[in-house]
Amino acid sequence: MPEVKIFERPKCMTDVSTHYCPGCTHGIVHRLVAEAIDEFGIQEKTVGVAPVGCAVLMYNYINTDMYEAAHGRAPAVATGCKRVRPDLTVFTYQGDGDLASIGVAEIVHAANRGENITVIFINNAIYGMTGGQMAPTTLLKQKTTTCPYGRDPKVNGYPIRIAEMLATLEAPGYIARVTVARPKYVIKAKEAIKKAFQTQIEEKGFSLVEVLSTCPTNWGMRPAEALKWLEENMIPYYPLGEFKLPD
Amino acid sequence: MSNRVLMKGNEAFAEAAVQAGCKYFFGYPITPQNEIPEYMSKRLPEVGGVYLQAESEVAGINMIFGAAGTGFRTLISSSSPGISLMSEGISYIAAAELPCVIINVMRGGPGLGGILPAQSDYFQATKGGGHGDYRLLVLAPGSLQEATEFIMMAFDLTEFYRNPVMILTDGFMGQMMEAVEFKKVKLGYDIPDVKEWAVGYMAQRGKRTLLKSLSLDPEVLEQHNQKLQKKYRLMEEKEVRFESANVDDAEIVIAAYGTTARIAKSAVKKLRDQGIKAGIIRPQSLYPFPYKPFSELPESVKHVLVVEMSCGQMVEDVELGVSRKVPVSFYGRCGGMAPSVEEIEQAAKKALG
């Protein structure tokens, strides 16, 4: 019987093991981004911008031209690249510390200018790379190494809903929130990531997909527990859905 | 017929960049350099380029990082506090070996300081500014004509070395008007094709490019630093620029750059008129610094006087060059004050005793 290939690595993913912890969802999201780039056939015309955070090494896994930006500045780097080379597809991949804390000015203004770039925003409610500190998206009462008694809104305010906040702006073309906590969500996440790239390819402006993700290591949970915790705690506060669609 | 035009400094800087083929500018308003972004916002659309106002200097320099990564010529300008904000990004650009030209139209500091001219960012420009072992190639023009030529040359230099080049000037130069002629300046260096390293050429190159500064492996990071240091040594060999006058028989040599050198030249003339043998050395490149004219001063020189619009920064490099062979003294005004010809004259007489 001839060999039939039913599953393979996306063309624009490199053939190496990732450095991510067991149960971390970065690998799934990387794959979805790579699949989208492959399906549009734009590998050689795509430029990624890696953040500071666990995904700083994204350039080791996604095989396109790539920048590695300073903490929070990926949307500015992407802006500079896209303004000079509008023929390229430019995306950033940023975590919650990078995008929602130190890089809040860059993301708001890139969105507000309607920069024709795509942003993949990983929200796992914690700083992963530095070892589990509080993020702007850390849930109330959630314990981290810098809010060991649980996040108290009187001290640290409330978790920021980035997708909803950016959707109040006029310019963005596509804004959605998805998760990859179960296969059914992964299918939706893939659709949203493709729509985001489609928005850019059709020159309909800024697109962002917020992906609710896990950090089992810093949450102090087993991978399966982490997925369950995400569903039970993050989805109620961060509702899934599309907040802005291109005209 | 001459093509000389009367222009304001900041506008002449901007036009020189346009004539050098720079089509991409990312700016943020700050006095006294606002005419640069204003001029670019009008001029760049005429040449099919892009002017974009960033949300901050921090964003602006990172837009430059992105734009420079395409291999096209890019410019950013600011004044002292804005350059401080850009310093992180400049360190990343130097580390990632990307070309760009940065103009600092200096004003008085520290902190918010004032909006009047100063030269108090010498240390920041020549000794680092941001973190890590990197250098900027720093050029300090002494007239608007020279500024236009240095800016055009800066684009060749930044591409040849793949290292940011800074034009260090001040609010006087930015705000004054002078006749300039835009002469094409070409260094004639063999500049490698940007397709070898820039984004957007993966198909032509047959492999992707990575524009990054992260190296978690200490051996790799050390090797990268050694590679950068090699470039800086080459700059020290090839890019030292200075002008000197009346040094051969001088008993006192005045060292000054930029605006201060213009004032010092008048002081030298007045001192000569009074029979005092004064000369001047004007560094045009601040990094690499022209140590040699100071280490090889003629026997006649009894004293070196450094004049700056700062509390004494370049004086440290002059002292390194002179190496205690003759006394070095300093006269400076700061905070937006400039030394007068008479003040420099008096300082020179005092130094000679």
Write the layout of secondary structure elements.
The complex is a heterodimer of chains A (247) and B (353).
Chain A: H1 26-40, E1 46-50, E2 65-68, H2 74-84, E3 89-95, H3 96-102, H4 104-112, E4 118-123, H5 153-156, H6 162-167, E5 174-179, H7 183-201, E6 207-212, H8 216-219, H9 223-237, E7 241-244
Parallel strand pairs in A: 1-2, 1-3, 3-4, 4-6, 5-6
Antiparallel strand pairs in A: 5-7
Chain B: E1 5-8, H1 9-19, E2 24-27, H2 35-43, E3 50-53, H3 57-68, E4 74-78, H4 80-95, E5 101-106, H5 122-127, E6 137-139, H6 144-161, E7 165-170, H7 171-175, E8 177-180, H8 202-205, E9 210-211, H9 218-238, E10 242-245, E11 252-255, H10 258-273, E12 278-283, E13 285-287, H11 292-295, E14 303-308, H12 314-322, E15 328-332, H13 341-352
Parallel strand pairs in B: 2-3, 2-4, 4-5, 5-7, 6-7, 11-12, 11-14, 14-15
Antiparallel strand pairs in B: 1-8, 6-13, 10-12
Helix pairs in contact in B: 1-2, 1-6, 3-4, 10-13
Structural description of this entry:
- The complex is a heterodimer of chains A (247) and B (353).
- By secondary structure, chain A is an alpha/beta fold.
- Chain A has one domain: Thiamin diphosphate (ThDP)-binding fold, Pyr/PP domains (Rossmann fold, 3-Layer(aba) Sandwich), CATH 3.40.50.
- Chain A has helices at 26-40, 74-84, 96-102, 104-112, 153-156, 162-167, 183-201, 216-219, 223-237, and strands at 46-50, 65-68, 89-95, 118-123, 174-179, 207-212, 241-244.
- Chain A has a 7-stranded mixed β-sheet, with helices on both faces.
- The longest helix of chain A is centred in the last third of the chain and has 19 residues, at 183-201.
- The N and C termini of chain A lie far apart (50 Å).
- Chain B has 353 residues and is of the alpha/beta class.
- Chain B contains 13 helices and 15 strands.
- Chain B has helices spanning 9-19, 35-43, 57-68, 80-95, 122-127, 144-161, 171-175, 202-205, 218-238, 258-273, 292-295, 314-322, 341-352; strands at 5-8, 24-27, 50-53, 74-78, 101-106, 137-139, 165-170, 177-180, 210-211, 242-245, 252-255, 278-283, 285-287, 303-308, 328-332.
- In chain B, the strands form 3 sheets. In chain B, strands 3-2-4-5-7-6-13 form a 7-stranded mixed β-sheet, with helices on both faces.
- In chain B, strand 14, helix 12 and strand 15 form a beta-alpha-beta unit.
- The longest helix of chain B is centred in the middle third of the chain and has 21 residues, at 218-238.
- The A-B interface holds A 43-45, 47, 49-50, 56-57, 59, 63-70, 73, 76-85, 87-88, 105-106, 108-109 and B 24, 26, 50, 52, 54-56, 58-60, 62-70, 72, 74, 88-89, 92, 96, 199-203, 208-214.
